[in-house]
Amino acid sequence: MKKVICMLCTVAVTAAVQAKPMDNAKLSIHKNNIKVWTYQNEQNPVIQYKAETSFDVPMENAVSLVLDVENAVKWVPYMGSVKVLSRDDKKGEFTLYMVLDFPFPLKDRDLVVQGKIRKDAQGNISIQNKGLKKGYPLHPNYVRLTEYEGDWTFQRLSNQKVKVSTSGYANPEGSIPLSFVNMFVQQQPYQMLQKMKVQLATYKPIALHDVLK
């Protein structure tokens, strides 16, 4: 493989403590074939999200785009840069270093993400990501995010249609107004899936790892 195949996590600023999936969920956005639910853990005032949509492309194309690091900055909101620290193609595991370009006057964030790719008996593909807290030096120019989890799932609806779901949370660290964080949580996954659709219209998929076959 000439291009690196790894996971782009959905880096949304969401809750630091994970709630049970869809507890107290509210459908916050429903337009352009995209749904975004938000929900809260009573122990944390910052909301979490789940978003889903469908694309008229083969499932492999959607998975390929999410695994194609070189295209990350084109469609993942606030993605400043991303690079591969390690990967194990046989196990479907990887480690990424990401820099998030937050709007002024907020300080940019960075994080180290450990990911795992799986395929179930029905052929659905999932990618699970978790922020690492130790083992990598802090950068003086960034605020390090360590409390992060994010998932993608891909379900084949037909040869030319795929359902894509993404969910997650993160502790944004530092001093960020709660109102900004909660607005960000609702808008970021919606914007990302919109941009993903645009990218898929002209995207040439890269070869997927054998674990996905």
UniProtKB/TrEMBL annotation:
Cross-referenced Pfam families: START (PF01852)
InterPro entries in alphabetical order: START-like_dom_sf, START_dom_prot, START_lipid-bd_dom, START_lipid_transfer
GO CC field: cytoplasm
Stretch forming the signal peptide: 1-19
UniProt entry tagged with the keyword Metal-binding: no
Keyword hit for Signal: yes
Protein name from the UniProt record: START domain-containing protein
